[in-house]
From TrEMBL:
Residue numbers spanned by region Disordered: 47-73
Organism: Orbilia oligospora (Nematode-trapping fungus)
Gene3D superfamilies in the record: D-Amino Acid Oxidase, subunit A, domain 2 (3.30.9.10), FAD/NAD(P)-binding domain (3.50.50.60)
Lineage, highest ranks first: Eukaryota, Fungi, Dikarya, Ascomycota, Pezizomycotina
Protein name (database record): FAD dependent oxidoreductase domain-containing protein
Domain FAD dependent oxidoreductase per the UniProt entry, residue ranges: 83-424
GO biological process: retrograde transport, endosome to Golgi
An annotated GO cellular component: cytosol
Length: 445
């Protein structure tokens, strides 16, 4: 499967597609050989991202702080888990699946996703990675995760496969229709001459980088060992009378009855949909719009955080991320759009997308005359208590873990989250970073 293309198709045509491409071992999951329960067996071993601090450090020299454990194994988990089921095919779920599948204890790993891999925010994010922009609660996680992004890119040719590269990250300011009073140094040559009034350095190539998040997710799924992927809606975490997990109830399009996928451990990494499965883990959400642009002229790898005072007196703060083959730009979040049942049902407000294009055109003629190649929207997950995500065992349940609420830092911090959850599940304690303040038990204190 190395280097093979991965396409996701409607479930009705999944079996035929997999047979034609001969890249999966497809079999029925149920005893009655239902043709609707298909498993793909991978047999191959806006809120702003602006930093909380700006002290650059080398990714290779960064050291995690002394680790502190979360909780030990639940009392009933006295041996290595044989079967782990992950709910959510975004970057956190995919990263967790990857590290679990490569752990020496060799658990069986199943990933359940309702739409397709990276169908939500993980496929529509900007993909910025930052080493040292994080607060105390997530700084250790971010350092670990940044290092893992570097090592994964080196190990699996991430520069070619998912657009990994180092960036210089700048903050720029300007006023629409007004030239600055003096010359400003350090302005990238693809921005309008005589428009930018201020340039600040937020990150160097030693402290900021980028990935194309959807391509990253698809590649890491391929690099997982013996990973089973089920396309279906995980509607319920099923518990026994003693609150020990039994499995996950899954619904499939066109089928009335549900199936229970049994598990020793369940990981809920469902992003903004997490609270629908775990009501005691409050995760809120906001919609964010973005566009991708094709330009005739290549632009330098400078990520831009902008402050644009418009003619009407309002302030626009779009973020611009040049990629190797396109330019990505995103705008402000929308707090009033309700979360749909599935990622595939997210509504896109084209007016908001066109406003992003209009705003970034103020700073760049190259962008102004570029072609919009995608208008898209997604929902970002936020933990309602504390500044960081929830990562660890869910209180009140046995053998159920959660990893959700990463906000705009999900792409950056997903590999570290996946590695730490693997340590917690397979080794009983977290040893590679200090995320004690992210313990989901904080919701019960």
């Amino acid at each position: 499967m190395s280097g093979g293309a991965l396409r996701w198709v409607p479930w009705r045509s999944t079996l035929e597609f997999l047979r034609q491409n001969r890249v999966y071992d497809v079999r029925s999951h149920s005893a009655d050989s239902s043709p609707f329960l298909l498993i793909a067996n991978f047999s191959r071993p806006s809120p702003s991202l602006r930093p909380e601090n700006k002290s650059p450090k080398s990714a290779r020299s960064a050291r995690p702080t002394k680790p502190l454990p979360l909780r030990q194994y639940p009392a009933n988990l006295t041996s290595m888990p044989q079967k782990v089921v992950i709910i959510g095919g975004g970057i956190v779920g995919v990263s967790t699946a990857y590290y679990l599948s490569h752990h020496e204890s060799n658990p069986s790993v199943t990933l359940i996703e309702a739409s397709s891999i990276a169908s939500g925010a993980s496929g529509k994010a900007g993909g910025l990675l930052a080493l040292d922009w994080h607060g105390n609660d997530t700084a250790s996680l971010a350092r670990l995760s940044y290092q893992l992004h570097v090592s994964l890119a080196e190990q699996f040719n991430g520069r070619e496969r998912w657009g990994y590269r180092e960036l210089t990250t700048l903050e720029i300011s300007c006023t629409e229709g007004k030239a600055p009073s003096r010359h400003v140094a350090g302005v990238p040559d693809w921005l309008r001459e005589g428009v930018i009034s201020k340039v600040g350095n937020l990150g160097t190539t030693q402290s900021t980088a980028q990935v194309h998040p959807r391509r990253f997710c698809e590649a890491i799924v391929k690099e997982s060992k013996n990973l089973e992927v089920i396309i279906g809606h995980a509607s319920k975490v099923v518990l026994c009378d003693d609150k020990k997990v039994k499995g996950v109830e899954v619904e499939f399009d066109g089928i009335r009855e549900t199936k229970i996928i049994e598990a020793d451990v369940v990981v809920v990494a469902a992003g903004p949909w997490t609270s629908r499965l775990l009501p005691n883990i409050p995760v809120s959400t906001q919609r964010a719009h973005s566009i991708t642009i094709s330009t005739q002229t290549p632009v330098s790898p400078h990520a831009l955080f902008t402050n644009i005072k418009l003619k009407n007196g309002s302030l626009a703060t779009p973020e611009i991320y040049p990629r190797t083959d396109e330019i990505y730009a995103c705008g402000d979040v929308d707090k009033h759009a309700p979360l749909p049942k599935f990622a595939r049902d997210v509504k896109v407000d084209e007016g908001r997308c066109r406003q992003i294009m209009k705003n970034i055109s103020v700073v760049s003629e190259i962008l102004e005359y570029g072609e919009i190649t995608a208008m898209q929207a997604c929902y970002l997950p936020y933990s309602e208590i504390g500044p960081g995500p929830s990562v660890g065992w869910v209180p009140g349940m046995r053998n159920v873990a959660v990893a959700a609420g990463h906000s705009c830092w999900g792409i950056c911090n997903a590999p570290g989250t996946g590695k730490l959850l693997t340590e917690l599940i397979c080794e009983g304690r977290i040893s590679s970073a200090n995320i004690q303040s992210l313990d989901p038990g904080r919701y019960t204190r």
